[in-house]
Amino acid sequence: MRIATTIWLLFSFLILKAQDHPNLILTVEGVKSIQSSLGKIPLFDQSLETIRNQIDEEIKAGIDVPIPKDLAGGYTHERHKANFFTMQKAGVLFQITKEEKYAVYVRDMLLEYAKMYPTLGKHPAERSYARGKFFWQCLNDANWLVYTSQAYDCIYEWVDKKTRKKLNQELFRPYAEYISIENPQFFNRIHNHSTWGNAGVGMIGLVMDDEELVTWALNGLDVKISSNKAKDNDGGSIQLKGQKEAGFLAQLDHAFSPDGYYTEGPYYQRYAMYPFLIFAQALTNKKPELSILNYRDDLLIKAVYALINQTNSAGEFFPINDAQKGMSLASRELVNAVSMAYHYGEKDPQLLSIIEAQGRVPINDSGLSAASGISSGKSQPYKFKSTELSDGANGDEGALGILRKDDLTLVMKYAKHGMGHGHFDRLGFMLYDGANEVIQDYGSARWVNIEHKDGGGYLKENNSWAKQTIAHNTLVVDKDSHFDGSVEAAEKSSGTPYYFSTTDDIQIVSAKELNAYEGVQMQRTMAVLKLEELENPLIIDLFSVQAPEGTRYDLPLYYLGELMSTNQKVQTNNDLIPMGKNDGYQHLWLEAQSDLIGNVFRMTWFNNKNFYTMTSAVKAGDQSLLTRIGANDPNFNLRRDPGLIHRRIGGNTVFASLYELHGRYSYSDEIPVNSFTSIVDLDILHESKNYVAIQFQLKSGDEYRFAFSLYDNNETSNHTVDISSGPLNWSGAYYLNKIDK
Q1: pTM value > 0.85
Q2: In 3D, which of 572, 603, 609, 614 has the Cα closest to residue 590?
Q3: How many Cβ atoms are within 10 Å of 209's Cβ, its own excluded?
């Protein structure tokens, strides 16, 4: 009896041992749940069928593992990229369907890579600071390893021992060493590149039970990297002092704020969220004792919400820093992230509405959980709210302010620079009317993966134009970019959050920038008002500056659409010349200008069937400059977008403007409605280092006053400023009142 028991226990152990894989993203129990749910959950079934059709077509086409030679967008780059996506999906299909053709496909492709790898030197393209093997940069090699490790995990037990040993020793271990100990300048940074490297090395380490690789991934390498070794178009990284200076845990500690904001901005947060979350999921399955999804108060789940809240009503990310416009919640990274946040979070039904809009789920436990919730009718609309997302590891290094009212979204940036992907745009803003950009941020000068445009990489105009201050909706002093265009200088400080408040009728964001220019203090205060006389919320923009007399100010505004009219006489330029030689001015044509007269400058433009008007207070000597992007751009790398610059020469001053969204135009009926602004007048009643007060009048005859304390934001403090009609008294940071007549 004892012998029989021993044999049974040994047999059970061998069965469990044989079922040790998959254990990264898929698990043995998870696969069983998926198999038992097939045919019962429509969104999951649809997602599975889609990838089955994709992979069946790839298998028919055959395996192609070309010798690497191209940059992004070229054939070999795109083929190797397609290979790792295909292998990952084929591995999943093998586990769920048990059809061996999928395992055979993954195995045979991996053997082709194992045959090729020892013959390769560094990639022939010499553009990157860390050249890869299969790709032109280690970043893409790390992508390959993150996805391929999942495929390998799915066939690990199926592959015979001889093949497994060959793949482990001749492909995966050398490959992991190459992107880590052979390229520490890539692996040992606080940067999205290193996140991919950490995740790739760690995940293949988990598959092969190679604890050394997992340790490198979690804690970094025991080496010091000088900052100048990691600088190219993706250069710059957080330089740390202290114990944990690299590795996955250090990335979590230093790249995110407690609110889940990622210091490189939403575009790169979206990109980095895949390795952050997929490695976290693997660690949750393989090393649950780390409790990685609870690390820093559930930081990674918070980060998903932070990303969602950095989108417009179409789900497109705000194009802050180096960003390609149009990237959205529909991206493959967010398809994985939102389902993970639902499954591992609190089963928030609002997330399900986003997953429904995505139209697909990942084929794993998270995807099954999300699709099941939708199938059960649990989905609720996601409620976007005004929010201030702090920046910096401790949440004390600037922030991103987001105000939302009705269909309007206002975003103001006073965060950290954003490392090598940051732009010199402190106190810049952008405005959306629904999904439409009204006042834009340019984003990056890059055509991702489009070979026509310098191989799909960053264009030189990204540095000479897109990053420069004049390319953004913020103040330029003496034609110089903030911090004189130095990333190192910009990284030493951040914007200073001053005031953030939201109520039903008024929302306000205010922040300071004290370091962009020596001897210059800047503070921007923006308010969104809901007034009964207007069809849409009204925006107040007060840019206060303390600077020496004789300072030249340029305040650009990059409106999208067609100029309808201004209230000023415009002098057009038939002979165009660039507006300067550097700091971005070399890329601007001056199309027309006005010497501003009267109390206000007014400009109305039209875009996407709606009208928009800016009304600005005018001071003696002010000019308006109508610009167009595109000078010194022989390859037409830049968009030919219009802009407006409000120019002023003086000392301490306030730029005061109102932005009104009004009216509409029917192309079918050819009838405009409410095409003219309701703002009649705008006056600055008071401006000083401590206070600013304005008054504006509407067509209805109603007048409003708004005042703001620039030095004391305490809600119980009392304030008094003198205006022409007598003292203005209030308590709290701001004053808003309709004038009694």
Answers
A1: yes
A2: 572
A3: 12
Q: How many CB atoms lie within 10 A of CB 296?
A: 16
- SS3 state of residue 45: helix
Gap between the Cα atoms of 194 and 219, Å rounded:
12
Cβ proximity of 247 and 198 under 8 Å: yes
Give how far the C-alpha of residue 644 lies from the chain's centroid of Cα atoms, to the nearest Å.
26
What residue ranges in 337-442 does DSSP mark as E strands?
A: 387-390, 399-405, 408-414, 428-433, 436-439
Question: What number of helices (H) and strands (E) belong to the chain?
Answer: 19, 27
Kindly tell me the burial class for residue 37, based on how many C-beta atoms sit within 10 Å of its own C-beta (0-12, 13-18, 19 or more).
middle
Closest of 334, 333, 348 to residue 298, by C-alpha: 348
Between CA 341 and CA 355 the distance in angstroms is 11
77 catalytic per annotation: no
Looking at the predicted structure, is the pLDDT value of residue 18 above 50?
no
CA 179: distance to chain centroid? 25
For residue range 461-481, what is the model confidence (pLDDT) as tens digits? 999 999 999 999 999 999 999
527, β-bridge pairs = 508, 540
CA 294 to CA 16: how far, in whole Å?
Answer: 28
Q: Out of 156, 267, 268, 517, pick the active-site residue.
A: 268
Single out the catalytic residue among 123, 421, 482, 587: 421
Give the residues across from 650 on adjacent strands: 551
Q: Which of 481, 477, 459, 677 is nearest to 564 (CA)?
A: 677
Tally the C-alpha atoms within 13 A of residue 195's C-alpha that lie toward its C-beta: 26
pLDDT tens string 704-736: 999 999 999 999 999 999 998 899 999 999 999
129 is catalytic: no
User: Strand, helix or coil at 101?
Assistant: helix
Nearest-angstrom CA–CA distance, 222 and 553: 48
Q: How many CB atoms lie within 10 A of CB 18?
A: 10
Q: Is 711 helix (H, G, I), strand (E, B) or coil?
A: coil
Burial class (CB in 10 A: 0-12, 13-18, 19+), 628: middle
- d(CA 266, CA 321) in angstroms, rounded, equals 9
List C-alpha distances in Å: 150 to 96, 223, 507, 639. 14, 29, 46, 40
